[in-house]
Amino acid sequence: MTTALITPRTATAGPAHRDPNVLRWLAAYASSMVGDSVYYIALSWAAVQHGSPAQAGAVMAVSAVPSALLMLGGGVIADRFGPRRVVIGSDAVRCVAVLAVAALLFLTSPGLWPLALLAVVFGTVDAVFMPAVGALPARVTTRDQLARVQGMRGLAIRFANVVGGPLGGLGVAVGGAAAAFGLAGLLIAVSVPLLISVRMRELPADDKADARPTTPLGDLRAGLRYIRGHRVLAPLMLAIALGDLGFVGPLNVGLTLLAHERGWGASGMGWVLSGFGVGAGAAALLLTVRGRLPYAGQVAGYAIIAGSVAIGALAQVPSVLAAVGVALLIGLLAGLSGAMCGALLQTQSDPAYLGRVTAVSSLVSLGFAPLSMPLSAAAIGAWGTGPVFVASAVVCGLGGVIALCVRDLRRAELPN
Q1: What one-character-per-residue DSSP string does 287-330 give?
Q2: 350 contacts 225 by C-beta, under 8 angstroms
Q3: CB neighbours (10 Å) of residue 2?
Q4: CATH of domain 216-410
């Protein structure tokens, strides 16, 4: 595949949102994410149709196991073989698997086993896909544009969330789960030729890992040592972990229980979630347009703390309208802190280690943080929504305290 030599790391021909190469990558990423959204709707619908609610829940959850167990190894694979090659291979495997299940559902009624197998395949592939996706922007643009690309990526995720649901529902309505799976497979397939057309930049000599270990386990240990010894990345990982741990429970299962307790109903909960999405999208748009914000470490820390206060306040508001306003504020602050933390991960990491850095970050956010959901549900059952939301806000706020108390992280800046 054709590659283009990288220009000096702080120089670029123009902003990333006007770079056709970056836009091809963004289109590939957005298409893949929309396909993912459609896939999850198709999977949940098919699982409910072919099994009991408990069995459907098990099918939906089974992909999380291989994803969490293999995530760190996926980071090693991304760094060893190159992120674009891994993303292309991952999307190709997911496309084939989804289309195969679509054909099987169209021709027969096989029950739950192909759905469970598909979920396992997706979880396994996600373990290498997510670290590679995180490492890819550093090979597509220069470091001074990585913060803007992080904002563009956030917009793509919001777009996928907004568009994927209606598309998945339309597919189910038109042709059942088979049609929805087929649509998901086609959307994922669109990303492959786009990614093949993306030009890659070679790493500068000082960004290539010296004396690369000869074994994958050695690579993994080297990556963990690199993170542990880094003055910004190590405390940043802890801040991200605490922020996500205090955020995931209240804004997922906690919000559902709060809406039920206040009598807001499903429509009220939907409005609250919409407010959160609008706020997060606004934060991503801000970073896309500005390209960078000064005092990145401080902005991340203060945004986490302010967002944690808003999380605690969400359980105290009496009306849906007020909850929507608070959720919009949470989305704006969480989106801003998340974008700044993601941009710092991108810009502070040597690209040679970025797959492994992303793997650790993804494991923290997608592997450990969801464990707070059953704990939050049990705690709300025992003590109610108010105290649990406040306790979660305290945990989340500790992440911001760490960001402000660790000098190197507090002083971290994004490249000009």
Answers
A1: HHHHS--SSHHHHHHHHHHHHHHHHHHHTT--SHHHHHHHHHHH
A2: no
A3: 8
A4: 1.20.1250.20
Given CATH 1.20.1250.20, say whether it is the number of domain 14-195.
yes
Residues 50-86 pLDDT 10s: 777 677 777 877 888 888 889 999 999 999 998 999 9
Residues 6 or more apart whose Cβ sits within 8 Å of residue 324:
271, 272, 274, 275
DSSP E strand stretches across 81-211: 200-201
Q: Determine the Cα–Cα distance for residues 151 and 156; give it in Å rounded to an integer.
A: 9
Residue 102 has pLDDT above 60, yes or no: yes
CB contact at 8 A, 132 and 74: yes
Mean pLDDT of the region 367-375: 72
201 — phi, psi (to 5°)?
-105, 135
Beta strands in 113-257, from DSSP E residues, in sequence order: 200-201
Domain locations in the chain as residue ranges? 14-195, 216-410
Q: Please tell me whether the overall predicted TM-score, pTM, comes out greater than 0.70 for this model.
A: yes
* Residue 28: CB atoms within 10 Å: 26
Helix, strand, coil fractions of the chain, as percent rounded to 5: 85, 0, 15
Nearest to 400 by CA among 315, 274, 311: 311
pLDDT at 127 over 60: yes
Within this chain, domains 14-195 and 216-410 share the same CATH topology = yes
Q: Measure the CA–CA gap between 106 and 144, rounded to whole angstroms.
A: 49
Q: What value, to the nearest 5°, has the Cα angle with vertex 302 and ends 300 and 306?
A: 115
